[in-house]
Design brief:
By secondary structure, the protein is α/β, with parallel strands linked by helices. The protein is 23% helix and 35% strand. The chain has 10 helices and 21 strands. The strands form 2 sheets. Strands 3, 4, 6, 7, 9, 10, 12, 14, 16, 18 and 20 form an 11-stranded mixed β-sheet that branches. A 10-stranded mixed β-sheet has the order 2-1-5-8-11-13-15-17-19-21, covered by helices on one side. Helix 2 runs antiparallel to helix 7 and helix 9 runs antiparallel to helix 10. The protein starts with 10 loop residues before the first helix and ends in a 10-residue tail after the last helix.
């Protein structure tokens, strides 16, 4: 379906038209429950529209460039090759690799490894048939779209994504690497992958999600991931966002933690033109632990927003949050971290920190750590710092033979490496370290 020109494009009406055309062609093939969910989501998107500057949750998010871009739905087929994937993403031979293009799993580009019995990694569209009851039970359970237009849009328009199941008691020794490539071949497209990940009680999993696109391409990635972590289960998660520098990335992650579970996540942003990440973690039972860390490397005219919410809905739970920003050029970064402690969530221990390194006079940071505490027996701290490279440290490095640029790279690496060191894939971690130290990563930005 062709789209309008930028002069005639009306974003809300245009996206509603994309939905109408898609539903007319594919709606009858969906199971009734899924079709009802999609219809409810598009109706809510129609009601909400797009948030403006008066919306407190969105007033620092610059959606103008996104809304001015005419979008089409991507083609079902792709001409990408293994060589294209290799140029976009560092090789991770220690992982089982699953490549999705515009939300659809591409077996010919993937390199899946041996997985324990009962573990499922599939395209969500396939799982809606092969594991229909299980998918329907989890789909939309956490990712509520009543107040978030882009979650509603994803729910209405997703055609695929990852479906991952790890049964109770199973340890997956080989990490899973899910690579999501947006491919706008010819005209800007909307890619809306939906991932549903269920980890059973006492299970173990290392999971990496990488989001990339071809240099110079314009597209909107509007993804949603729902992760359910069972009782006494443990998940180590990482997300690497390296979209095209001309692209838009509006992504949401929802995590639900059961009793005694552990979830740790490292989110690294190093691409995109307009980027927003919404992360919501909810404690649904006692004695669970959640760690959310992030690193944003922003330069040029990039605009990157990180919104995190940790909901201490149950007592005796711990959360730790550390977000770091490195800002150069005229880049603009926003951090808004919220911690809710409900009235009955006694013995909560929550820590939050946002640290920013400004490498230019024109870079901007808006930081807003938030605590909302309704219990009285808790330990909660939060804070934010903003600074530049230390002149004494620069002098020390240069006095030992480093050039000015090398010294700056080394000190920036020291600042950022606390987050990178927690990435669960050794090969990916090494590539990120090399990039910070000035060695070229595979080009993923235009």
């Amino acid at each position: 379906m062709s789209v309008q020109t930028p002069l005639t494009w009306k974003p809300k009406e245009g996206l509603l038209a994309l939905w109408a055309a898609w539903e007319k062609e594919h709606g009858e093939t969906l199971r009734p429950a899924v079709r009802r969910l999609k219809k409810s989501a598009i109706a809510r998107f129609d009601e909400l529209g797009f948030p403006g500057p008066r919306n407190e949750e969105w007033r620092f998010t610059q959606l103008g460039p996104v809304l001015k871009t005419p979008l089409a739905l991507p083609a079902a087929e792709t001409a990408l090759t293994q060589g294209d994937v290799a140029r976009l993403v560092p090789a991770t031979p220690e992982a089982a690799v699953y490549v999705f293009v515009n939300g659809r799993l591409q077996p010919r580009l993937s390199q899946s490894g041996p997985l324990p019995a009962g573990v499922v990694v599939a395209d969500l569209a396939t799982a809606l048939v092969a594991h229909a009851d299980l998918v329907e039970h989890h789909l939309g359970r956490q990712a509520k779209f009543d107040q978030h237009p882009f979650v509603a849009l994803n729910t209405a328009l997703f055609v695929g994504g990852a479906f991952v199941v790890v049964p109770a008691g199973v340890t997956v020794e080989m990490p899973l690497h899910l690579i999501f490539i947006s491919d706008a071949a010819g005209e800007p497209v909307l890619a809306a992958p939906r991932s549903v990940i269920w980890i059973g009680n006492q299970a173990r999993l290392d999971l990496v999600q990488t989001h990339v696109g071809l240099p110079g391409q314009v597209y909107l990635h509007a993804g949603v991931t729902e992760i359910s972590v069972g009782a006494s289960a443990a998940v180590r998660h990482a997300k690497l966002q390296r979209e095209s520098r001309d692209a838009f990335h509006l992504d949401s992650l929802f995590v639900q933690l059961q009793a005694g579970s552990q979830f740790t996540s490292q989110a690294i942003n190093d691409g995109g033109s307009v980027v927003r990440n919404d992360i919501t973690a909810t404690f649904d039972a006692e004695r669970a632990e959640c760690t959310l860390n992030g690193l944003t490397l922003a330069s040029g005219a990039q605009h990157v927003v990180n919104h995190t919410t940790i909901d201490h809905a149950q007592p005796h739970c711990n959360s730790h949050e550390m977000y770091k920003n490195v800002i150069a050029g005229q880049a603009r970064v926003v951090f808004n971290g919220k911690i809710f402690v409900r009235k009955h969530a006694q013995k909560t221990d929550a820590k939050q920190s946002n640290q920013t390194l400004l490498l230019s006079e024109d870079g901007t940071i808006h930081t807003k750590p938030q605590l909302e505490i309704f219990a009285d027996d808790v330990k909660c701290t939060h804070g934010a710092t903003v600074g530049q490279l230390d002149d004494a440290a620069l002098f020390y490095c240069q006095a030992r033979g480093l050039g000015r640029q090398q010294a700056e790279q080394l000190l920036t690496y020291a600042f950022a490496n606390e987050i990178i060191q927690q990435v669960p894939l050794d090969s990916l971690r090494a590539a990120l370290e090399a990039g910070l130290l000035g060695e070229a990563l595979p080009a993923a930005s235009g």
